[in-house]
Design brief:
Blueprint lengths: L29 H9 L8 H5 L7 H8 L7 H6 L9 H6 L2 E6 L3 H12 L4 E4 L11 E4 L2 E4 L16 H8 L6 E3 L2 E6 L5 E5 L2 H11 L4 H19 L9 H10 L1 H10 L4 H8 L3 H15 L8 H15 L1 E3 L4 H13 L3 E3 L4 E7 L2 E7 L4 E9 L3 H8 L7 H9 E3 L2 E10 L10 E4 L14 E4 L13 E10 L9 H22 L8 E7 L1 H8 L8 E3 L19 E3 L10 H19 L6 H16 L2
Parallel strand pairs: 1-2, 1-12, 2-9, 6-15, 12-20
Antiparallel strand pairs: 3-4, 5-8, 6-7, 10-11, 11-12, 13-19, 14-17, 14-18, 15-16, 16-17
The chain binds nicotinamide-adenine-dinucleotide (NAD) and the ligand CC(C)=CCC/C(C)=C/C=C/C(C)=C/C=C/C(C)=C/C=C/C=C(C)/C=C/C=C(C)/C=C/C=C(\C)CCC=C(C)C.
The site of the ligand CC(C)=CCC/C(C)=C/C=C/C(C)=C/C=C/C(C)=C/C=C/C=C(C)/C=C/C=C(C)/C=C/C=C(\C)CCC=C(C)C has 31 residues, from α11, α13, α14, β15 and β16.
């Protein structure tokens, strides 16, 4: 696949980032520039060199933190390896980390930074040239595109659920954000149009005006969402697999914990049906859930639905100035400033197991890295299907794969358009399902659209807007085609989607296009390293809410998972929470936090048993 036609490809060269490499240390290539920067911590640099670091961390702090590591330069890591690419015991010691994180998606970065601020030495291995995974970015012709969604939850400055803000703050970063007045504008069958206003009362009165006979049901359903959200928001969020924390929370906030425990095995659709009877309103709630979980309300955990349906009004949706990619860039930079490392173009090919314990990671150029714990931010399908031997699939993972399937991937179109094609006051995010509710979950049935330049004009050249259009699509649709047929199919499918948007929302859209790039599920698989390009896990049948979702520990000693195939699932804020939980459990296992081995065993057994009930 050539880079230009592949959609999600080259980002801004790393050399354009505002990092300062060492003046007398010549990086061999772009990734080493960052890598060298990361290795400032090695301690063998002059004051002047260290001064070149644009870090907020003081020089003494850097030296203190890193006195254990006496690497001369970035290249020393390579030299510590013998010619076969495997390390000797002595070398292994010099390359030894507390944790290795495979992948720098938001899940991986949050886990890594949370551990690093506790004093752990973390190495992040990222196969691509920049951090962020599905929350990355790329630049073309003056446009800065978000790779994935531009809808940011958890990015406000209040409450306990602003996990993105908190993750950044932990490494001393604070980003400027632009409040979005409307989370999403739904354009639905039978001319139903609903704007989800930032102001809760405005949203409720708009919805109740459309369904006056259901006013009470609407208030009751969303009221329960608030009850759950308020319980969540009142707690300090950490690992549910860590008994000292979990029992402590039950002691401090018994009512809130019981509320959460009560709703943990429930789905939004069942609760909606208790209060709402109008089939069209129930279909609207399906659409609300679909954008959260890519499945309908009957399959969407109530806790997840509540989190999204309330945070959008509580903290609001806030867009980071400069694009979503800035979040991952800031976290990666923060990680390095904490004295940990991130290595790009490091494609993990296997997790090294010794005596049943995960002890290291091998990357595609043959190098091996060792650590006390290994955290995989690859999907569980990739972790247990590729990084570990498929045939050794643990029982727990078999159960996960029986309960959850890979959600389809996306066809995504990144476009630059002339600004005047958008009517005044166009909202930033849209969801379009034209004629038939039955098409909600059908591939290409519904269309997601983000126009981040409505909020941040700096992402496009003057007089232009960005349109990021995406729709569900499966990898099977794109396999077995010749190059020519593949390219032709991409153009054809994209044209149909653009036609639909032209008809429904923006007359003249086609002739306003100044830039267009189409990505398919194959593009997602290639650039995001996600099995089948999947968007994340999706329940195979009606789930028992979140009960069946695995947390971060795995049945392999020393191996943890983080990201959207862990509790609580898909979504940037969801994977940020998974990162927080993972870091807490790992920190306890590494001795950075209190731990009780007896309670640990009991709780992990109990949670494992509860999952079998799902
Ligand atoms: N598609 C969208 O619209 C979109 C957009 C933004 C965010 N999201 C959300 O982000 C969530 C995913 O976040 P996440 O943190 O779980 O994962 P992610 O897929 O975003 O990131 C995983 C990272 O791991 C890297 N990686 C994978 N295998 C690797 C290997 N073998 N060696 C080295 N690196 C490897 C990838 O390159 C990627 O950077 C999704 O659930 C989704 O909700 C989705
Ligand atoms: C442990 C046991 C058994 C009992 C203890 C009880 C207890 C204390 C439970 C506690 C539970 C907790 C703490 C749960 C926490 C859950 C959280 C924080 C869930 C968060 C979920 C967030 C989600 C699902 C966010 C999803 C966001 C998404 C997917 C947004 C998507 C947007 C798009 C895809 C784009 C839409 C785009 C357009 C253009 C419309």
């Amino acid at each position: 696949m050539n880079i230009l036609s592949s959609g999600l490809s080259f980002p801004q060269p790393i050399s354009n980032w505002k990092t300062k490499p060492l003046s007398n240390q010549k990086p061999r290539n772009q990734y080493q520039r960052i890598y060298c920067f990361a290795h400032l911590k090695s301690g063998n640099f002059s004051d002047q060199q260290i001064h070149g670091l644009e870090s907020g961390v003081s020089r003494t702090k850097h030296r203190k933190r890193n006195h254990l590591f006496k690497l001369k330069s970035a290249v020393d890591i390579d030299r510590g390896l013998d010619t076969e690419g495997s390390s000797t015991a002595g070398d292994r010691k010099s390359c030894y980390h507390d944790a290795i994180v495979i992948g720098s998606g938001i899940g991986g970065l949050v886990a890594a930074t949370q551990l690093a601020v506790q004093g752990a030495k973390v190495l992040v291995l990222e196969r691509y040239v920049i951090p962020g995974g599905s929350s990355g970015f790329y630049q073309r012709d003056g446009f800065t595109f978000d790779v994935g969604s531009s809808v940011m939850f958890g990015f406000s400055d209040k409450g306990n659920l602003n996990l993105i803000t908190q993750a950044l703050a932990a490494v001393g970063c604070r980003m400027q954000v632009i409040p979005d007045p409307t989370t999403v504008h739904f354009h639905l069958p039978n001319g139903l149009s609903v704007q989800v206003h930032r102001e809760y009362s405005e949203f409720i009165s708009e919805l109740a005006d459309k369904f006056p006979h259901e006013r009470e049901g609407i208030l009751k359903f969303y009221g329960i969402c608030w009850k759950i959200f308020n319980a969540l928001n009142s707690m300090e969020l950490k690992s549910l697999e860590e008994p000292i924390y979990l029992f402590g929370q039950f002691f401090k906030k018994p009512l809130e914990c019981l509320t959460l425990a009560f709703y943990l095995p429930q789905n939004a659709g069942d609760i909606a049906r208790k209060y709402i009877k109008d089939p069209e309103l129930l279909s609207f709630i399906d659409a609300e859930c679909f954008i959260v979980s890519t499945v309908n309300a009957m399959q969407t955990p109530m806790i997840n639905a509540s989190m999204v349906f309330c945070d959008r009004h509580f903290g609001g949706i806030n867009y980071p100035v400069g694009g979503v990619g800035e979040i991952a860039k800031s976290l990666a930079k923060g990680l390095v400033h904490q004295g940990s490392e991130i290595l790009y173009k490091a494609n993990a090919t296997s997790i090294i197991i010794e005596d049943g314990k995960a002890v290291g990671v091998k990357i595609s150029d043959g190098r091996q890295f060792y650590a006390k714990t290994i955290i995989s931010n690859a999907t569980r399908w990739d972790t247990f299907g590729k990084l570990l031997k498929k045939e050794d699939l643990p029982e727990e993972e078999k159960r996960f794969q029986e309960a959850y399937v890979k959600a389809p991937s996306f066809l995504s179109i990144h476009m630059g358009v002339k600004a005047d094609v958008l009517p005044p006051y166009t909202d930033c995010h849209h969801f379009v399902l034209e004629d038939d509710w039955k098409n909600l979950e059908v591939p290409y049935g519904s269309i997601f659209l983000s126009i981040p330049t409505v909020l941040d004009k700096s992402l496009a050249p003057e007089g232009n807007h960005i349109l990021h259009i995406f729709t569900t699509s499966s990898i099977e649709d794109w396999e077995g085609l010749s190059r020519k047929d593949y390219v032709a199919k991409k153009e054809l499918v994209a044209e149909k989607i653009i036609d639909r948007l032209e008809k429904k929302l923006f007359p003249g859209l086609k002739s306003s296009i100044v830039f267009k790039e189409v990505g398919t599920p194959k593009t997602h698989r290639r650039y995001l390293a996600r099995d089948s390009g999947t968007y994340g896990p999706m329940p195979r049948r009606t789930p028992k809410g979140l009960l069946g979702m695995p947390f971060n520990t795995t049945s392999i000693n020393g191996l943890y998972c983080v990201g959207d195939s862990c509790f609580p699932g898909q979504g940037v804020i969801a994977v940020a929470f998974s990162g927080v939980m993972c870091a807490h459990r790992v920190a306890a296992d590494l001795g950075f936090e209190k731990k009780s081995p007896v309670l640990d065993t009991a709780l992990l057994k109990l949670l494992g048993w509860l999952r079998t009930l799902a």
